[in-house]
Design goal:
The protein has one helix and 18 strands. It has about 240 residues and is an all-beta fold. An eight-stranded antiparallel barrel has the order 6-7-8-10-11-14-15-17.
C-alpha cells in the first residue's frame, strides 16, 4: 500500500476536483488522476494539472484504479462544548498518513500534531497540551450530499476521535476523549492540483461524545489541503 500525509483530522482527499454532469440516480463520487494520453490528441486538457481545457489535448482525467499515496497539512479547532468548568477548546496543526483508492475510498493511518494551543477551558494557560488521534485507522469515502462532494471518515464502530491530556493547578492530570461514528468535510478544488477539505456547518452538526462533556458535545472545525505527489494531480469527481 502506498501512503499519505494528511492535514490534522482532515481525512479527506488529494488534488483538484472537477464536477461533471451525471444522472442523479447513477452519480457516484470517484477519485481520478490527471494522466498523459497514450494515443495522441485524445485528451481534453492542455496541462499536467488538468486545469486548462483543450480540444484534442494531451492530458485526460482517469479513475484511480489502485491504492495511491497522498500528502497534506492543515489546521483545526477541537472543542468540548459541555466540558467541566465550561467549553474546552484547542487549536492544532499537523500532518498524517493515509491513502486513496478505487470507488472513492481512502483512509488515514496516522495523525501527528505539530503544535496545539489552549483557547479555553480547564487546561492551564501556557502549559503543554497533548492531543492525539484515537481509534486509527480511519476509513474514508467520498459521498455526494445535496449535489456536492464530501469526504466522510469513519471507523469500524469505535468512532473517529481524539484525546486531550493536560494539567490543572500544576498537579492534576485531566483527560478528555471525544469520538463520533463518523465525521465529514466539504471537498473542493485548489488551483495547484490539491483538494481542499473544510469542516463546515454540516460538520459542526455531526457532534461527538466526550468523556467530560457527554453526548453531542464534541465539535471539530478546520481546513486542510491534500495532494498525491507533486507530479500528479488528483481529482474528486462526480460521475
Amino acid at each position: 500500500m502506498k501512503r499519505l500525509k494528511i492535514a490534522f483530522g482532515l481525512a479527506v482527499v488529494a488534488g483538484l476536483m472537477v464536477i461533471t454532469a451525471a444522472p442523479a440516480m447513477a452519480a457516484n463520487a470517484r477519485w481520478e488522476q490527471c494522466k498523459k494520453v497514450i494515443t495522441a490528441k485524445t485528451g481534453n486538457w492542455k496541462n499536467a494539472l488538468c486545469s486548462e481545457g483543450q480540444k484534442e489535448g494531451e492530458w485526460l482525467t482517469m479513475e484511480v484504479t489502485e491504492t495511491e499515496e497522498v500528502t497534506s497539512s492543515g489546521e483545526g479547532e477541537l472543542e468540548d462544548q459541555k466540558a467541566t468548568g465550561g467549553a474546552s477548546a484547542f487549536k492544532c496543526n499537523g500532518t498524517g498518513v493515509g491513502w486513496i483508492g478505487t470507488g472513492g475510498n481512502g483512509g488515514v493511518s496516522q495523525v501527528s500534531q505539530k503544535s496545539c494551543t489552549r483557547l479555553s477551558g480547564l487546561c492551564e494557560v501556557g502549559k503543554p497540551v497533548t492531543i492525539r488521534a484515537v481509534n486509527l485507522p480511519w476509513f474514508g469515502k467520498l459521498e455526494i450530499r445535496e449535489g456536492k462532494i464530501r469526504g466522510v471518515n469513519q471507523t469500524g464502530g469505535t468512532g473517529v476521535g481524539y484525546k486531550v491530556e493536560c494539567t490543572v493547578g500544576g498537579i492534576f492530570k485531566v483527560a478528555d476523549e471525544c469520538t463520533q461514528t463518523k465525521i465529514s468535510g466539504a471537498v473542493s478544488n485548489g488551483s495547484n492540483g490539491n483538494v481542499q477539505g473544510t469542516f463546515d456547518k454540516i460538520s459542526e452538526e455531526e457532534k461527538g461524545n466526550c468523556t467530560l462533556g457527554g453526548a453531542n458535545s464534541g465539535v471539530v472545525r478546520g481546513t486542510g489541503s491534500m495532494q498525491q505527489r507533486k507530479e500528479v494531480a488528483t481529482y474528486a469527481n462526480i460521475r
